[in-house]
Amino acid sequence: MMKNLILFLLFVLSGLSWSQQVNYEPSFQVGKKYIYNYESMLLSGLPERGLGRAGISLRGKVEISSTKLKFPFMKMNSVAVADYNGKWPTDIFVDSPSLTQVLKSQLAQPIKFQYNGGHVGDIYAPESVSENALNIYKGILNMLELTIEKAQNTYNLPEISISGRCNTTYVIKEDKKDSLVYITKSKDLNDCTESVRMNAGFAYAVKCRECKPPNRNSRSTSTSTYKIKTSKGKPLIIYAEVQEIHQFTPFNELTGGEAVTQVWQKLELLYIENASSENQETRFQNRGNLFYRFDSELFQMPVHLFKIQNIEAQIADVMEYLVIHMDHLIPGEMPSKFLQLVQLFRMADINTIESVWEKYADRTFYRSLFLDIIPAVASIEAIRFLRLKINQQELSEWETFQAVLVSLHFCTATQEAINEAKLILKNTQSHPWYTLRITGFLAYGSLVYKHCAVSVNCSESSLQPLHHLLAEAAQKGDEEDMILALKSIGNAGHPASLKQIKKFLPGYSSGASDLPIRILIAAALSLRNIGKRNPKEVQRIAIYAFLKPNVPPQVRIVLSLVIFETIPGVPVLATMANAMHKERSLQVASFVYSQMKALGRSSDPEHRSLALACRLALRILRPTPYKTNFNFKLSRSYYWDNFSELLMAGFALKYYSLNKAGSTIPPEIIIALKANFLGNTADILEFEMHTQEMLATILKKNLSRSDSYMVEDIKNFIKMLPDWKAIPSDKSPISLYLKLFGQEIFWYEFDKREIWMAIQAFGQPEGRLQIIKKILDTLQNGYNNRWVKPLLFSEIRTIMPTSFGLPIERSFYYISVTSLDGNVQSQISPVPSANFRLVDLFNMNIETYLKANLSTEKHIIAVMGVNTHLLQAVIEVYARIQADIPLDMISLLNFKAQSFKFVFPPFIQDTEIAYISSETNAVTRNIEAPSPAKMTPVIGFHLRDSYQDPFNSTSASKVQRIKGETPSLNISEGDSSRDVISVFQTVCYDVSILGLKLCFMYMSISAAHIKPVPLYHIIGKHVIIVNAWPELAMEKVQVAIQIGPEAPAKMVRLVHFEAENSSEEERGTFKGLEEMDEPTFLGDTLPPTVTVIVQAIRTDNKEQGFQVTGYVHSNSSKVNMQLVGVPLTNEKWKICVDATVLPLKTKGRLRWGTNCKDYNIEAQAAVGQITKKPAMQVKINWGRLPFFLETVFKKTLKYVSDIAWASGFSETQGGKSSHQAVFQAVATSSQTIHTVIKIPEVNLYYSTFLVPFALPIESSPVFNTSTLTVWNFLSEIAFRIKKEDEAQCEVSENAWKTFDGVEFKCSHPHNHKLVVAKDCHVAPKFVILTQKELINATREVFLFLGKRRIAIYPSASSNLYVILDGTPLLTNEAIYEEKEDYINIYQQNGSITILASEFGLEELVYDGKILKITISSWMRGKTCGICGKANWETQDELEMPNQKQAHDCTAFFHAWLLVKENCDKG
Residue 299 in 3-state DSSP? Predict the structure, then answer.
């Protein structure tokens, strides 16, 4: 009790002590004027001294006066602005009189602000004060913001600042003797409840929730120190200093290196005087609180700065300059001017844009350039302009397509843009070109996604057009529009759409179960983007539908994919794992199991918790009995990722194989690429293709007959089945979609008519002739065109305020300009006639002149620093890739003589073929003097040229290798202030055969000598230049090709081929696969088949060039091919290539050097059998190799071994060869192979390596090498895969085995027709029935094939007889062929066999006791009856016509009996 009393007294006394202290909440007295000296400085660069930096400083006198309590005025006088561009800290700030004058005039007007208890409230200023000037004032007011907590010396609280409301820590120290208090406050600018910043270009990226806590790419902090003096009880700030640091690294913040922007401010009281009583109340307007207010920052790009005077004239000047000087632009000028145009258009209003359009719309090149720029402008005025042009039908279909696709994806997402996009959508919705309609809705959905990602005021009304389309399509039963609406809603990714989506998800809507599966899948996939924003809700919805057993397996697979993408926790995954124990669908179980297994190995930081949860869920799945049966005929998920902790970046490749009926080739695949960068993840690319019906069509013999069968009689029989539910026919043979950054930009379904037209065009002779005729007509008429395509591919920006009052920006730009300038003229004789035939082509002479140039420029710009419309002070990394490829050629084609000649003129002048550079500079620009910009390399260097010509060296080794030199570093340890001496290396190769000398010049200098971290390796200057210098004596290069009997006459030099014995290493078990005869020179007995002469025609008549002769000997079982290359001079070097191809073995060799003996590589591949099991071997041997090739071999084999180790291979002992690589595989089952990899230094094996397709080894016979030829080998493989996918059912009297191999024992009922197997579509192609009248009688078989009826009856002689449409067959002959319907029937050894593959029935065999039915591969998953569905699922074999499972075989049989009453009526 006493202890508590003492503590209470101490608490009261301490409170009384603090209350007796002076109040240190600063204020300004009414009637007084406080004159402060203000200095501020901002610098951007690397943190080390001696490196280039860019910055700005501001100095002046700040006057604070108060004529009204708590409403002081502020004004700044004696303004002085200086910029910094140089090495820090040796160089100095340079005064900028012009910029000083601009800011001085803006800061001359006073502002007024609320100030109470150390807090800055609302700020008032005249309307004429610009936002830039007001923000600078806010930077000063930011120093006056103080929160004094009584009775506490250390405390933490959220405090308002120019950057937002951020977490702030205070430390207060009192000096009672001098009536002073010292305050230190620190702000974590990354920890703000209200953060003031602007992001652009990140809408499609998702923050990695598990990447941010351990590593940040950006950190910002501010530390302020104050000295407060109390005089006569009035506290006053007499000194304040602020240091603010913004740190950024694209890599790991601990080991990646960082760039910084530092801000320093000082406010020091000079004196106090009496204030005047001037009243300015009427001139002020409320301009908000202390938060920084953005103005025109997004309009101003950080890569240039210029004054806007007459914006329309400036746009016209730049466009005309680009068009007129297109052929003479210096490198880098086109991308720079393109960005300048983008910024000019961003500042233009709709009237200006319209005026420019009217001026250039009728001029082709200007029009094209204009329409390329407008989507990149991304402003509301640009979108409005495009909407007007589309409404007025002033754009072509292609121009409209490009405008809608690019502009809606690139535009700034605001409510105004949404409103304009709605109007565009109305126009495209009624457009006859359906692809434009698809593009419009998908792009609109993407715009809504971006809008809701950046705006807290995202309205659900934005979704109204998409919801309306979905409701209208559902009412009309329009499947295509339902899918389009769901895909567009999926792009929008708004949680408000969940109610509409659930109407199309099974389990949530009673009508959903009747919808086609493709609509259910589209509804499930539409949840994916919503899951990025609301993962818990999407998990709840998806898991509920996933656990419904009556949902189709394909839909449940997609739902599981959606669940995994939401990164679920242990409870959800455990629920899924437990459900798999009772899972009836192997397709679903296989996909879920493989997905968990793949993600459990993920190294992606986003998946850290998911990987742990998956590994735990796999433990639950381990007892699953059918887990070991999962194979590649089932749906599976594959996931590979790689993440670098050093770079804090990585990628992931996803491949989903979605099977439906256990086919070897999956009918649906999804391939996706994801990237991790800057603490975000982005789905870069995703491609899906569904080919179920197309594969079926290809596997049929006659596409044109696939839907021509008369099926009315079959449909009448099907009506006899009770509760019959047919499988609807799939409408689209092929469908595909393409996603970029998680947004579907293209989707299309090809109908059978389109596919048939394409096959007719390319696969039929008439179609090919039309294509050839069009090409010849184009050549005859000539072609002259220039195509230029500029594209602002990426613009990513983050803008944030600083205490200086100016914003800093981190930006990334990627600009691409591709151009093709070509002129083609041809002379054709004889001129192709209107009734052109293919034989006419082989009598033509075609002479063609081609003069073209392909050019591409890629500019990548990364910027950090101050960017405003008045000044820029940034660190800029500017990378440029440029390539120019001349395409000049003359071709003379004589098809009749089989002579073809190509002439290439030499380079007329020195040509820079490629230029790659990257340099980092400190850059400052001033609006009053914008050009030229001040630039200082961040890493200073002196250039010293070093020219090397290896052909002037007497050492042969120097010819084969380029020896790099490490740049000399003229610096002392720990000192980065000295410049680096860089060696600019030049290596040239004399490519005389092409008439030129090819030179590589390269130089690289970076900041890595200061700190060997990733960012510092980038900072600096790196250059690679590829130049081509012509030889003066070169006239042209000529390539002459002669084929056929005249080939020997064109030979310049006689050649000889020298054979060598191959290596005998590593035979062993595979010896039988390797035995092949060594080739002899075919030229000893055969003339060459082809002769090629490549010759340099020179003015000095010097022989230069080489000759290649080819020899071919071919028969049905073996093909030998040989090529021999020799110089036209008497040099002894040769190139010898020979290849031998057998049906099961292939061998090839490449040898070159003196008489083909210096270097050699040999490869061979063989397939066959080892201990009666299919086997394959690939072997590569090499001898001496050039240094470059040897290095490539070593690195490639090292990469192979790394992949093998990561895939689970183990090391085995055995002999190792330093010049041999061997891959051996023996099939141990249809899904696994025993694999051995032998490479130098390591031997690896994997006993049960899974293959990505089912090996056709169980149902196919052994290869018959006596009949197998080289030319039918591939078709044999295709035939085997097709046979593997066929399914067989066996039915006897007391048992049956289904198509999926499940055996049942049960007596069949008699006296009723029983459906054994049938095509389960609405319009079936075949039906097989059986019936027996008496228990001991032989069972009758009935087969319906369209309009044909076939019956097999027992006869008195115990034989079987066949009746076709009432006519007995096989009475006098053993074989019957029906050519019209492709039906074959024959009798052999007492069995009747029927072949009708055109109907999906490969074979029906009946011997009176056992009925065997084999269906075509394309019928998998489409059958029903007692033989099952042939869908590779073993859990639904007792499915009845009503799609429910029977409890026993008796009920199952009775469900598939045809009702007798209906039979009598039929």
Answer: coil
